[in-house]
Amino acid sequence: MRSSVLELVRPVNCALSGGAVVIAGAIAASGATVPGHVYLVAFFVAAIVAAGGNAINDYFDREIDKVNRPDRPIPSKRIAPDRALKTAQSLFIAGILLSILLVNVYCFFLAALNSLVLVLYSGFFKRRGLPGNISIGYLVGSTFLFGGLSTRVYAAGTLISMSLLILVLMAALSTMGRELIKAIEDMPGDKKMGFKTLPLEHGHRVAAAMAVVFILAAIMLSPIPYIQGIFGDYYLYLLVPSIASFLAACATILAGPKRAGVASLGCKIGMGLGLFAFLAGTISLLV
Q1: pLDDT score, position 1
Q2: Residue 277 sits in which domain range?
Q3: Which of 72, 148, 274, 283 is 20–30 Å from 32 (CA)?
């Protein structure tokens, strides 16, 4: 049962969310002295709320997963639906309450808001096309915003710095682009399930064009931290292959829907390299 619960909440993905928060926190701190527990608490708040989101997503997708993912804990009957729901509720409450330790009203509000958005996304927006794509873009971007706000209160200047704002926007825009590409990839299955996704409602060409617009907007923002001197050469070294991966994904999806899976993978690689670029830039700030 314990392994089934871990499978339900996807701990690796949760750890990645927590890691993104720590990176954003270090960037936003701008060299200011931040108590060590702030990073630790922020990491666990993000990870716990993400775990709740994964559990509630499986709860709402239990009928769909009987067809697409019968090996998941709920359709395989290793976890009862009501247990998954209670697990999600407990994790959301725990994450929100833990955020109080940050003594930061912004983080408390954001943890509560994101818990609500995760429920609304899984239960409603996910099946409504573009609102679902925007919801995921917001959630990914706000993960970095949460990390930034957790430490930014210790730094001088405005609450949301230019470097933090760029990171949030890049994450949100690139995620929305990838979500649209994934929607193109999932068209056959989504059609059978009766989902009203953007490519099914308006065609794969419109969805591909919108995906490219979102991705190009993220790419245009990416050099700003280097140009402004926020990050040095190490950021640039990793940024270049990240941009190349995103551009390859754009070219692939514009060629047609059959290679949407390849385009989605290209975006994933680009996002990973982009995160490492920000990590490299962050380390250069600390040494």
Answers
A1: 53
A2: 161-287
A3: 274
